[in-house]
Amino acid sequence: MCKAGDFERCDYRTEWKMGYKVLSNVEKLKNSIFKMNSWLLIMRAIVTALVWASAVQLIGIWLIRGPRVFKVWPPCNQLDLHVASELPKLPIPVFPPKRVYKNNGYLMVSCNGGLNQMRAAICDMVAIARYLNVTLIVPELDKNSFWAASEFQDIFDVNHFIRSLRDEVRILKKLPPKLNKRAVYSLPPVSWSNISYYIHQILPLVRKYKVVHLNKTDARVANNGLPLEIQKLRCRVNFHGLRFTSQIEETGRKLVRILREKGPFLVLHLRYEMDMLAFSGCSHGCTNDEVEELNTMRYANPLWKEKDIDSEMKRVEGLCPLTPEETALVLVALGIDHNVQIYIAAGDIYGGDRRMEGLKAAFPNVVRKETLLEPSELRFFPNHSSQMAALDYLVSLESDIFVPTYDGNMAKVVEGHRRFLGFKKTILLDRRLLIGLIDQFTSGSLSWDEFSSIVKEAHADRMGSPKKRVSIVDKPKEEDYFYSNPHECLQLLDKPLRTT
Ligand SMILES: *[C@@H]1O[C@H](CO)[C@@H](O)[C@H](O)[C@H]1NC(C)=O
Ligand SMILES: *[C@@H]1O[C@H](CO)[C@@H](O)[C@H](O)[C@H]1NC(C)=O
Ligand SMILES: *[C@@H]1O[C@H](CO)[C@@H](O)[C@H](O)[C@H]1NC(C)=O
Ligand SMILES: *[C@@H]1O[C@H](CO)[C@@H](O)[C@H](O)[C@H]1NC(C)=O
Asked: Is residue 44 part of a domain?
């Protein structure tokens, strides 16, 4: 597929052919989902090919005039160059000298949530510990959460974490034994707090009790309004201090190598898993038995407070993960090459093969870690959803295109990390708009070419390119998440890559 403003250099006939090829897949897809007259499809095929070709031109023009970021997109002929290249080997780290400071006490933290929520929280807590001049004990990961059940050292390289940050903060694996018997003061910090909260509310507790245990960590630090050095430290922990264990890193590199050998790949974070659907109450396209199963699971989980959910209403508001069928339509509408490898970064897709039919008809090269690796290569990671999520995280970082179907923590943290890696293309789907368009298209009130061009147009500036994070005073929930766009830490494209 041609990209990056070099459309003159791309073979136009290939583009045309691809327009048809893509379209024939649209047809397959639609046959598996909707019934339609075939002559109408042929008419649409012709019109679509025309629209497609002119859309390519338009996009080309837009790219030339557009922001500099697109120069970092691999143009069509460079995509192949990628194939030969390997993931860069991790540099042999030279650890900085320790920072010497007067220790105010000890901070213990218990992270809650899934892997990526905890990842962000770890970065926050390092920054807090640094600015309170305390000693941080290696964070404890959530063992009760539905989403994770591992120790820090099962996921992250704990020695690298400690040593690579030692010029900022002292981190210990365990509380010193002499402190073990003391009463530890536990509390959940107030959500979205700024540094003055930690200085004025938490530090006096640390001074008084010597050991303070922050027992919840999700979104406890504000997105905005923090000193620049704190924002940069959050990034430094995220992009340099946190490294997965060598076993996870090696397996991740192997997955990427296998994918690269076969050409470009798109990572689809298809968040269509049972837990997500049960939790969110989204059941569009499910059978009655499945709806019942999902509801039973939701009512049984005391942590999921919202019980009575109107699935259709939620879907129309754009609050549901896209279904595999909806996703397939959108990817085809966006003009994604049907030959591209699509790596599914997710656990089991709810409904299994039945729900994946349409996507596989449109994109035959659907793969996942279980199909790329031997079972023996994943044997180190049995039943450890966090380690599986870590593998998917690594593959997601490296992909040519990343498409999340829901804006959960993985989607957001990977989006931010890809921005850091040079504004790699992340397609941020506007689900609310898409659901409306999909419903119009499937009911026949919108033609394929109208549907496709609106989808393309609506996402032209939702590709993870440089922009300022949206900040809304007093409405932290509605702001852009710091970790999805840590713009303070992103190098301008005409400057060399920043290393810290
Ligand atoms: C932390 O230590 C630095 C010196 O290393 C000092 O300037 C700063 O005031 C200290 N902050 C607190 C909260 O103790
Ligand atoms: C956190 O600590 C507070 C105060 O000790 C306690 O009430 C609360 O239940 C604890 N929360 C968790 C998640 O452990
Ligand atoms: C920090 O938060 C407190 C309480 O929410 C607020 O009153 C204060 O103005 C904030 N400080 C800064 C520097 O944003
Ligand atoms: C993984 O979990 C499943 C179901 O929870 C269980 O049946 C299986 O024995 C577990 N496997 C391992 C290796 O722990």
From this structure: no
